[in-house]
């Protein structure tokens, strides 16, 4: 329900390999439901104002991923967490999970060591050290479809895989004329969004008709001594991931393992657009696919109270800055 009186929302900001996370730690009620999947549905229905308040201008910007702490549905978990961004509610988010870990440590709620977080996609295990390094053992990740060929509206023919890593991804090599780097962001964004529109147009989906809302492009690393690959990830709201993307790295690892290019326990180093690196390993899952373990670092950057006056202009953000096709 949209507030009708002034509200004070307590948040803590962090970044993971350059990608920001804004964790809501106070000032809002608990979403309804028993499981995190039910709470996610409740959040989508009743907490849209919180999402736009935290993420959209004038208080936020397109790259921020929000995280609402809530009661876990599974026993033995430190917290439940629901992730959201400028376009809606996410399934999962590993850079955000790392941000939640250092936020809880900053609040004195957890110490270095192993902990469990409950998420809408399942329970993830985190190992935190005192330097801000966080290792997340993710939910089962797997390739759903291999070597799908599409023809985009711009006339390009693209071949890629559809895989799950906590979100649905279309994974493909970046064209040689579109090198991955900070100077090519606009062109990479247009290219990836063209792929996204084509998938929607052609009815290419994840399992059970799930929307493929993340596009992940790959190229050789800038420095082969520090990374095995470099990626560009376009997120649902057409913002690019500043980090190497934890769920995207999980999806990539699942594909590499299935292709025999990555052995269980072998390390893969995934660089992102800023050349920050996540390292990952996998263990096979009995039902197929793998359980990825992703390591990165996160650091708290700010504490704030978001002041929400329903009578003020843009009290709940400026959604008109999003294109209609994204909203």
Could you provide a short overview of the structure?
The protein is α+β, with helices and mostly antiparallel strands and 327 residues long. Helix content is 19%, strand content 35%. 47% of the residues are buried.
Write out the strand line-up for the largest beta sheet, numbering strands in chain order: 1-2-3-4-5-6-7-15
The top level CATH class name of the largest domain: Alpha Beta
The secondary-structure element order is: EEHHEEHEEEEEEHEEHEEE
Give average pLDDT, whole number: 95
Number of strands: 15
> What's the CATH superfamily of the largest domain, by name?
Diaminopimelate Epimerase, Chain A, domain 1
Quaternary state, please? single chain
- Give the N-to-C terminal Cα separation: 20 Å
CATH topology tier name of the largest domain: Diaminopimelate Epimerase, Chain A, domain 1
The profile of the biggest β sheet is: 8 strands, mixed, barrel
Beta fraction: 35-45%
Q: Portion of residues in helices?
A: 10-25%
Based on Cα principal axes, name the global outline: globular
Number of domains: 2
The poorly predicted ranges are 323-327
Specify the number of helices: 5
Question: How does CATH name the architecture of the largest domain?
Answer: Roll
Radius of gyration: 19 Å
Structural class: alpha+beta
């Amino acid at each position: 329900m949209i507030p009708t009186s002034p509200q004070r929302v307590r948040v803590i900001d962090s970044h993971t390999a350059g990608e920001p996370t804004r964790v809501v730690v106070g000032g809002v009620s608990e979403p309804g439901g028993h499981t995190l999947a039910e709470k996610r549905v409740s959040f989508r229905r009743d907490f849209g104002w919180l999402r736009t308040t935290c993420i959209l201008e004038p208080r936020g910007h397109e790259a921020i991923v929000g995280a609402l702490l809530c009661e876990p549905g599974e026993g033995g978990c430190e917290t439940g967490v629901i992730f959201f961004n400028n376009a809606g509610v996410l399934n999962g988010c590993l850079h955000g999970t790392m941000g939640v870990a250092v936020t809880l440590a900053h609040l004195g709620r957890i110490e270095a060591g192993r902990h469990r977080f409950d998420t809408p996609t399942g329970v993830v295990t985190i190992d935190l050290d005192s330097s801000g390094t966080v290792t997340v053992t993710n939910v089962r990740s797997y390739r759903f479809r291999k070597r799908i060929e599409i023809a985009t509206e711009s006339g390009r023919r693209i071949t890629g895989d559809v895989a799950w890593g906590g979100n649905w991804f279309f994974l493909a090599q970046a064209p040689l004329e579109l090198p991955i780097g900070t100077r090519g962001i606009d062109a990479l964004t247009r290219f990836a969004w063209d792929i996204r529109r084509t998938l929607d147009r052609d009815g290419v989906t994840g399992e059970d008709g799930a929307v493929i809302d993340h596009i992940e492009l790959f190229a050789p690393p800038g420095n082969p001594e520090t990374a095995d690959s470099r990626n560009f990830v376009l997120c649902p709201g057409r913002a690019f991931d500043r980090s190497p993307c934890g769920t995207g790295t999980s999806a990539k690892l699942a594909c590499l393992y299935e292709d025999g290019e990555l052995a269980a326990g072998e390390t893969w180093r995934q660089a992102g657009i800023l050349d920050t690196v996540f390292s990952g390993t996998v263990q096979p899952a009995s039902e197929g696919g793998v359980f990825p373990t992703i390591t990165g670092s996160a650091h708290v950057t700010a504490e704030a109270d978001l002041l929400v006056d329903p009578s003020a202009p843009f009290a709940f953000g400026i959604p008109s800055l999003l294109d209609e096709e994204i909203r």
